[in-house]
Fold this sequence. Notes:
Order of helices and strands: EHEEEEHEEHEHEEHEHEEEHEHH
CATH class of the largest domain: Alpha Beta
Distance between the termini: 26 Å
Strand order of the largest sheet: 10-9-8-7-11-12-15
CATH architecture of the largest domain: 3-Layer(aba) Sandwich
Oligomer: single chain
Radius of gyration: 18 Å
Number of helices: 9
CATH superfamily of the largest domain: Nucleotide-binding domain of ferredoxin-NADP reductase (FNR) module
CATH topology of the largest domain: Rossmann fold
Number of domains: 2
Strand content: 25-35%
Largest sheet: 7 strands, mixed
Amino acid sequence: xxxxxxxxxxxxxxxxxxILQLDTxxxxxxxxTIADADAxxxxxxxxxxxxxxxxxxxxxxxxxxxxxxxxxxxxxxxHIEKFGRVLCVGGGIGTAPLHxxxxxxxxxxxxxxxxxxxxxxxxxxxxQEMGAxxxxxxxxTDDGSRGRxxxxxxxxxxxxxxxxPDLVVAVGPPIMMKFCAETTRPFGxxxxxxxxxxxxxxxxxxxxxxxxxGGETKFVCVDGPEFDGHLVDFDNMMLRLGTYRAREEDDxxxxxxxxQLEEEHNA
Length: 267
């Protein structure tokens, strides 16, 4: 989805996100990392996966329609510099927020390798864009329908052994980031992860996005979203992420049923 937001497009930096609200009466506040931006055109690009009611309503919007509120850029930007060898690892929809980070690392003159993974070929995103940035791109799918049949941790370990990156950046589902961090830990390679927790206001007031990092409480919306992956308590984070799972699953089934009935009616 491309949105006209000239002030955000001008100010955003890699790693930052926005919060969308489709309407002010009952609209859920949805945090989404900015996948790309064009300051000249005044647009930002968002990539999302339809899960519940809000993302379903976003998915069926037509060109020219509007979104009530777009707040951002939020969060701390990615620290970009010439580290030397940088390995970016994206899992599923996490490849979207990884894209601007990879752009920044490439522009800084780093030797860049990228691994992107998904469950199947239909869920692989930004392959061409990532391939244009990387010195080497490795694509993995769980079922082998695209690229290599493997989890991203398999080529990650191989590159840690043979290529020895100076920095690893991993973005994806929490379980994927956890095991990426565990893969790099024995090699002592600094590993940054970008967390996407439950979030309400996005300005540090509600505390809903709190995580434990190095034994300390941090707020993803203002202290993050990026943290040292070797210090994040992923188990506690995943436990908190399950708070609304039953509601999300109910919304997911209801939304798809509504869409199916709508399609049948139009036919």
